[in-house]
Amino acid sequence: MKDFSAGLLAWYDKNRRELPWRQDVTPYRVWVSEIMLQQTRIEAARGYFQRFMEAFPTVEALAAADGETVLKLWEGLGYYSRARNLHACARRVTEEYGGRFPSRAEELRQLPGIGEYTAGAIASIAFGQPEPAVDGNVLRVLARYTRCGKSVGETGVKARFREELRAIYPAGRCGDFTSALMELGETVCTPGTPACPACPLREDCLARRAGEETAYPVLPPKKPRRVERRQVLLLIRGDRVALRKRPEKGLLGGMWEYPNRLEGEPPPGGTCCGSAVHIFSHVEWHMTGYILRPGPEAPDCIWVTPEERRALAIPAAFRHYSRVLEEMGL
Ligand code: SF4
Hints:
Helix content is 41%, strand content 14%. By secondary structure, it is α+β, with helices and mostly antiparallel strands. The protein folds into 2 domains: 5-133 and 159-183, Endonuclease III, domain 1 (Orthogonal Bundle); 226-327, Nucleoside Triphosphate Pyrophosphohydrolase (Alpha-Beta Complex), CATH 3.90.79. Strands 1, 2, 3, 4, 5, 6 and 7 form a 7-stranded mixed β-sheet that branches. Helix 1 (5-15) packs across helix 11 and helix 2 (27-37) packs across helix 3. The radius of gyration is 23 Å and the shape is globular. It starts with a helix and ends with a helix. The structure holds iron/sulfur cluster (SF4). Iron/sulfur cluster binds next to helix 9 and helix 12.
């Protein structure tokens, strides 16, 4: 791969966005922002990041928090295993490393929730090391730049890009180089219509030269998502509503939910309160809700007041049903 670092850094110096985690760069702030940004758009992550930093200004503060509070602050961001790993990782860093993140990527990768990508991001952005961080955005830029004919899901493709990048990491500006590549993928070399005329890599970009920018990256075939039809039950007694805790492992692990089950006969005496669809990465829930008032016995549930419910983290999948309750004054 041709060395494009100088042009890319010059572009970054002019075009970098001011983002909350780019101010006051510390390993802790870089780590939290990278975990948040894994499945979340920058604009959506900003507010969460700021609230998170206010609640937990240090890794020790996060480690000392209780799990429920952490999940509550994560509510709406989805992929809740990230929040649980974040909490577990804060505890490890506090207990085993005295509150200081290790600086080497190999050591960072041993911590909960930190994979190859996040380890590279922290090592380069927070510690100035020549460690590439190849996420989907960076992969797209590189696949286009090199006109990579292999599927980017194929084994070895990412590792090869990482090796090639390592060779061109600019001494003294490793963190900026990582951020610049990500930024280019997010703002210029976008999936649908890349803004090639504004791109600092345009002269040597092989996909651009062939006029085939959008033919790359070659993506692995998508598996169709499974559809699950579920009934959501809003069980109400006086001003209390039944909530159930999901098992710790698996989808939405450890979160609170309205009792729900695979669709069957509508519950006797239930009043339909609308349908909602929620799309997870591998499954779609097509839900129909029913109000049961007064709600029947529900041994695996707790009964909460509206105030108590709002203090708990209920996943966005159930947002429609929380609204139904709110409209009922609950
Ligand atoms: S020239 Fe176009 S396709 Fe190539 S890296 Fe830049 S934006 Fe992407």
